[in-house]
Amino acid sequence: MATNENLPPNVIKQLAKELKNLDESPPEGIKVGVNDDDFSIIYADIEGPAGTPYENGVFRMKLLLSRDFPHSPPKGYFLTKIFHPNIAMNGEICVNTLKKDWNPSLGLRHILIVVRCLLIEPFPESALNEQAGKMLLENYEEYAKHARLYTGIHAKPKPKFKTGAISESTTALNVDQTNSSALNADQKITAPGAALPVISVSPSPLAPITVMRGNGQDQPAVVAPVETGVGGCAASAAATTTTLRKEGGLAKAQADKKKIDARKKSLKRL
């Protein structure tokens, strides 16, 4: 499950939409995957464009998104070794889109397409790999030979990303965000120290108690607790008080009647 603590909620929401769109409608020659533990790391497999020294190769790369993305550009790295003027030996990608030409409105799709185009048209003038840049300017055939050698050795087809993995991850992410929002709303509604309604789980004073008979012996029945709210407890107490008052009044009336009958009998004797 993605925790995504490295990115703000509004950025995560936008990323979820973009990733789902990339999964359902991928750019030509590009397949995107995600890190289920952190959406700030985006993976992509890029197919080597036809007619280039990278043809028939599959190059895995990643984009690292900082917490202030999209206000600052992501950092791009090739995980697959590649001989290219604009890709350093440690995999770092040098392209203007991820540097001076960055715009917060640019999406992941645009970034990935630009990176793939870099395999078609390198820029030796801003080379991170000086050997590749110099070779490209002075002897293209030698450059292409080295690039094809790297491609044949390192850029073999990778295990494919799980189909529908992005949709599953973004769906789970949306559920997590919904649950978090609901939890935060509950915490705001229930202020610290606020009085909460007390729920009584004691048996109702009016609940009947029965006796179960089995094997010739009397056994007390188990009486299930009756949950009542504060109002229910008050109503039960009031009903009990009323019943006791009625019973007390009846007993007094019966005693008065006995006294009157006794007086009548005494008068008859006289």
From TrEMBL:
Residue ranges of every copy of the UBC core domain listed in the record: 10-156
Record PROSITE patterns: UBC_1, UBC_2
EC class (word): transferase
InterPro entries: Ub_conjugating_enzyme (IPR050113), UBC (IPR000608), UBQ-conjugating_AS (IPR023313), UBQ-conjugating_enzyme/RWD (IPR016135)
Highest rank taxon of the organism: Eukaryota
One of the GO BP terms on file: protein polyubiquitination
EC code(s) of this entry: 2.3.2.23
Pfam families assigned: UQ_con
Biased composition (Basic and acidic residues): 247-259
CDD domains the UniProt entry points to: UBCc_UBE2S
GO molecular function: ATP binding; ubiquitin conjugating enzyme activity
GO cellular component: nucleus
Region of interest called Disordered, as start-end residue ranges on this chain: 247-270
UniProt keyword list: ATP-binding, Nucleotide-binding, Transferase, Ubl conjugation pathway
Biased composition (Basic residues): 260-270
Cross-referenced PANTHER family: UBIQUITIN-CONJUGATING ENZYME E2
Family: Belongs to the ubiquitin-conjugating enzyme family.
UniProt protein name: E2 ubiquitin-conjugating enzyme
Lineage: Eukaryota, Viridiplantae, Streptophyta, Embryophyta, Tracheophyta
